[in-house]
Amino acid sequence: QGFAGRLVSLEPVAEAFAVLTGLAAADGAWEAVCVAASDVDGEITLNVTGDSRSSSVLSRNERFADKAGWAPKESRPIAARRLDGLIDGLLGPEERAFLKLDVQGYERHVLDGAGAALARFEALELELSVTPLYEGQPGLVEMLPLLADRGFRPVCLEPILLDDDGLLMELDGLFARA
Questions:
Q1: pLDDT value at position 64?
Q2: How far apart are CA 12 and CA 80, in angstroms?
Q3: Of 134, 139, 137, 110, nearest to 41 (Cα)?
C-alpha cells in the first residue's frame, strides 16, 4: 500500500509462509522468516483453527468455543525464537523499526521475549482484548501499564471486534516511544 521501506515478516505456519514468501519475493525489500516470535527459543505448540486467523499458541477460552472456525482442528509444533536473539540478524546496528504483532493473545510472551531488543522499535501495533479470547491472555487493563513500563504510549486505539451483543471485545492499538 505504498510503503517503500524494508519489511521483515515472521510466520510460523508452513501454508501461510508459502504464500508469504511469494509475496515477499515479488516485493524485493521484503524478507520472510519461518519462525514464531516468542519468549522462548526452541519449539512451541500452535493450536491451528479452521479459520487460520484465530490460530494461536494459547488455547481458546470457553466463552468463544462455539464460534465458527475458531475451534482447534490440530496442534502442531512450530519453531520459536525470542526477538532479543533475532534482532541483530534482522536490523542493522543503528536501524530502528516499527513492530506489528498479530499473535492472537500471545503478545505478552512476544514482548517478554523481546528483552533489550524492544528499544530498537520506535512504534508498535498490536491487538488488545477488553475480554480475553484465549486462556492466559492478559486484558487491556494489564497491557496498557506493561507497554507504558516499556516506554510506549498509546497513539491510536480502534475497535476491531464486537461480541454478539455489540460490546467491545478487542482493539487494535498503535503505540509510539514515549
A1: 65
A2: 8
A3: 110
Contacts of 171 (CB under 8 A, 6+ apart): 127, 128, 129, 130, 140, 157, 158, 159, 160
Place of cell 512476544: 110
* pLDDT value, residue 19: 93
Q: What does the pLDDT read at residue 1? A: 54
- pLDDT (0 to 100) of residue 145: 97
Residues of the chain with pLDDT under 50: none
What are 26-54's pLDDT values in tens digits? 888 888 999 999 999 999 999 888 777 77
The H helix count followed by the E strand count for the chain is 4, 9
Runs of H (alpha helix) within 42-149: 83-90, 107-114, 140-149
Interaxial angle between packed helices 83-90 and 107-114, expressed in degrees from 0 to 180 and rounded to the nearest 10: 70
Residue 72 forms beta bridges with which residues?
49
How far is the C-alpha of 49 from the C-alpha of 75, rounded, in Å? 9
Q: Of 54, 124, 116, nearest to 82 (Cα)?
A: 116
Residues in the chain: 178
